[in-house]
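4.2 Preliminary Data

To establish feasibility before requesting continued support, the project team ran the inverse folding procedure on a target of 191 residues. The structure was first converted into the token representation described in Section 3, and no sequence information of any kind was made available to the design step. The complete token record follows.
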């Protein structure tokens, strides 16, 4: 485990994400093959699209947008995608044991058990990779979060107190954090 600590964590996470991308491509091909399966074909294709958006979005966040909220969002989506992969692997694994000649159940089809098995295999590989990826991202999340100090000047913390009187960018009616009496003081009796 000390060898993982010596490696560049950002490159390791990126490599794990690219590996997910390869298996997502394989799963997507399998999902198109099993798309004609009654009641679950669309689900397989939708899961493939979710995987594609997940890999693309996670890559974007880890490469460009390293805000704490974005990293937290990626962590939450990673956990959900991991559970989705587990459910997908279990379902297609169970369906791969079907017998092709059995059609007594309405809306049941068993046209390609070997494709169901391949879909299960790639979903299982994605589950394992995503499990390690999510665990590593949770452990090393502090290395990916860039502390943005863009909000330091809110509530008078970053600029001079007389920026409004000098024509600066402060809020009108506020000077030094205290509200000034620059509003119209008319009463309802004046109306």
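Position-by-position output of the design step:
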């Amino acid at each position: 485990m000390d060898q993982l600590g010596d490696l560049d964590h950002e490159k390791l996470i990126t490599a794990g994400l690219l590996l997910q991308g390869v298996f997502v491509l394989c799963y997507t091909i399998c999902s198109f093959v099993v798309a004609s399966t009654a009641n679950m074909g669309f689900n397989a294709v939708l899961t493939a699209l979710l995987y594609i958006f997940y890999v693309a979005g996670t890559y974007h966040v880890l490469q460009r947008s390293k805000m704490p909220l974005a990293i937290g969002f990626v962590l939450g989506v990673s956990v959900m995608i991991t559970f989705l992969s587990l459910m997908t692997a279990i379902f297609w694994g169970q369906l791969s044991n079907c017998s092709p000649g059995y059609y007594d159940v309405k809306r049941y089809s068993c046209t390609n058990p070997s494709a169901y098995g391949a879909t299960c295999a790639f979903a299982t590989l994605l589950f394992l990779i995503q499990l390690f990826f999510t665990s590593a991202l949770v452990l090393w999340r502090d290395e990916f979060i860039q502390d943005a100090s863009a909000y330091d000047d809110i509530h008078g913390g970053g600029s001079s107190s007389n920026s409004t009187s000098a024509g600066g960018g402060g809020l009108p009616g506020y000077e030094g954090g205290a509200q000034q009496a620059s509003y119209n003081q008319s009463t309802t009796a004046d109306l």
